[in-house]
Amino acid sequence: MAQGLSYELPHMFAIITAALAAGSLRITDIVDAQAGLWFVVLMPAAFIVYVLSAAAMAFWGPFDAPVARDAAGGAASELSGVDRLLFAAGRRLLLVAAAAMAVPLFLGGGHGPWLPAWAWVGLKTAAVLALLVWLRHRLPTIRMDRWAEISWVVLVPLTIVQALVVALVVLARGGM
């Protein structure tokens, strides 16, 4: 339970921060609120926490300890055949979905010059996925107890402070 909460709570706080800045929970409203400036510029901490926690939820990159090869396969060690394939596909699908969701939350959705909106969404999603793949090959595996400590001591307070700053900016410009 503590492990799950250690990456889900910062993830949710990052999403709430984007919604707070837009003044709505609707994805279209969040994208429209970024017409002038993407939220990744206004709230970089929330974006970084969102990407890290998405990787942790998919057991990707430095967060692959529960399914690591050095632990004889970890949680997937007893899986074989179709079960193992579905488990691996589910992890990758979760990663792609989280990367795709980062686009409307923090990267302005389909806003961009010259190309149609769907092309911008595809390019931005591919860029976030490329970042996650690059991080996977550059960072060492983090033990889950260490990640839980970092999450509770650093990421949760950081996302709360980021949300507070965004709330103050929203209030200063006249509310929602």
Automatic annotation (TrEMBL):
The keyword Transmembrane helix applies. GO terms for molecular function: NADH dehydrogenase activity. GO terms for biological process: aerobic respiration. The keyword ATP-binding does not apply. Keywords: Membrane, NAD, Transmembrane, Transmembrane helix. Belongs to the complex I subunit 1 family. Its main location: membrane. It comes from Pseudonocardia ammonioxydans. It is found in: Cell membrane; Membrane. One of its GO terms (cellular component) is plasma membrane. The chain crosses the membrane at residues 12-31, 37-60, 93-111, 117-135, 147-172. InterPro entries: NADH_UbQ_OxRdtase_su1/FPO. It is a multi-pass membrane protein. This is NADH-quinone oxidoreductase subunit H. It comes from the Bacteria.
